[in-house]
Known about the structure:
Elements (H helix, E strand, L loop, with lengths): L1 H10 L31 H15 L2 H20 L12 H63 L3 H18 L7 H15 L1
Helix pairs in contact: 2-4
Amino acid sequence: xxxxxxxxxxxxxxxxxxxxxxxxxxxxxxxxxxxxxxxxxxxxxxxxxxxxxxxxxxxxxxxxxxxxxxxxxxxxxxxxxxxxxxxxxxxxxxxxxxxxxxxxxxxxxxxxxxxxxxxxxxxxxxxxxxxxxxxxxxxxxxxxxxxxxxxxxxxxxxxxxxxxxxxxxxxxxxxxxxxxxxxxxxxxxxxxxxxxxx
Length: 198
C-alpha cells in the first residue's frame, strides 16, 4: 500500500498559483543563448576588416597590382590563341570585374571613414575635457599664486625689519639729550652718581 501512495503523489500535478508544469529557472546562472535562425557576427570584426581593406586600397601597392592585372588581362585576351581567350575585345568581363570591385570598395571605404569619424569624435571629446581640466587647474594655480603674492606683501621681510630698526635707532638718537639713550635710565644713573659723590 505504501508504494501506491508514493506513485499517487508523483502523478499529482503541483498545486498553487506559482506551481506549474514548467521547468524551474535558476536565477543565479545566466540563461543559455537562444538559437537563432540568422547567424550572428561581430560588427567590430567587420569594421576592422573594412578598415584593413580601405587601407590596402589606398596604397600605391594596390594601384600597381591593379595596373599589372589589367595589363596582363588585356594582353592575354588580345595576343592569346582564340580558344584560350576568355574576354574578347570590348572586355565586358573586365568591366564587370572592375565595377564589382568598385561597388564593394566604396561602401567599405565609407564604413572605414565612419569608424574613423567616430574615433575622432571620441578623441576630440576627450581632448576637450582634458583642456577644460587644464584650464581649471591653471586658473586655480593663478589664484593661489595671487593669494601668495598678496600674503607676501603683508609679511615682514628682512629688509623691511632692518629699515624699521634703523628708523627707530635714528629716532632714539634724536631724543638723546646728553643723558643717554633712554631718559629714565639716564635719570637713575645721575641719582646714583649723586649718592656716590656724597
